[in-house]
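User: I'm putting together a small comparison set for a docking exercise, and I want a reference complex before I start. The sequence is below, and the ligand is S-adenosylmethionine. Could you produce the 3D structure with the ligand included, as structure tokens?
Assistant: Of course. I'll restate your input first, then give the structure tokens for the complex.
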Amino acid sequence: MSPFLLTRTLPEDATDAALRADVLHGLTRCPKTLPPKWFYDAHGSELFEEITRLPEYYPTRAEREILIDRAEEIARVSGARTLIELGSGSSDKTRHLLDALPGLHSYVPVDVSESALRGAAETLLAQRTELSVHALIADFTGGLALPGTPGPRLVAFLGGTIGNLLPAERAVFLRSVRSLLSPGDALLLGTDLVKDEKVLVAAYDDAAGVTAEFDRNVLRVVNRELGADFDPADFEHVALWDPEREWIEMRLRARSALTVKIPALDLVVPFEAGEEMRTEVSAKFREEGVRAELAGAGLRLDQWWTDSGERFALSLATAV
Ligand SMILES: C[S@@+](CC[C@H](N)C(=O)[O-])C[C@H]1O[C@@H](n2cnc3c(N)ncnc32)[C@H](O)[C@@H]1O
């Protein structure tokens, strides 16, 4: 039986305090916002997996294509003995890397979703009895305390999740990733690319309405954790392309004027009819922008690979 360890670096009360702080801050400002990490309870993680299989949601297929094409090259160049994956979710695409890394000793998936980490570990360990998996329940935007596993280490951040951070947050995040890297370590970064608006909007507003349910899931999380009385049906899912910032915004639009009570915060939140609350940004990138953001954090872009449709890119970067 292979070793499996699950470490919670986020105490339950810290999660609770962070949710309270985010909801209080986000729902008392104008325009209202909620950060995307709160989508991912067990139901939200399942909905995200469903999204990855939708015909409109090309990023997962495009990134998988690159991983299949480049896994051996990534393995050769990195020589990784430890693979650390931030925001690992189901780790489904990761198996292409795991299969290609011959000397891999440890896999360290990091996620806020305990259910996603447990599900991923169960699937992986059923197939790879020799792998040591040390899963971390942690917020990748906080200081990460990584286990002492052998180097070289490859830090993977896939799925275009970096696009969910605002530019200033990305700068802080990339500097924190840089501080995790020792000489010989590398970062593998997945970024979705700027493309036709119709293709982008459809990826975040699918015909079957799965992304709309995912968007509204944050309201269910706030109801359950803070005793709020959001009726998800009162909110319409909206996906918009912002051509200046080059990001998609997901919003929830109130169908009518309403008020929501959040007893745990002693808060009553009024919404006007048609008022929109931002729940996610998903920035889209160009090669020069990625190179510049990496350089700003002390990282050098060594490889830039795209899928055959040039929809998505994987970058390999090392510390300068
Ligand atoms: C867009 S999904 C991508 C999942 C997977 N990497 C993929 O490529 O399919 C984002 C993942 O990051 C996790 N996540 C979001 N914000 C996080 C945070 N601040 N810290 C740790 N994990 C986070 C979510 O739970 C989810 O599993």
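The pocket of S-adenosylmethionine is lined by residues 37, 40, 45, 48, 52, 60, 87-89, 93, 111-113, 116, 139-141, 158-159, 161 (CB under 6 Å). The chain has nine helices and 13 strands.
User: Thanks, that's exactly what I needed.
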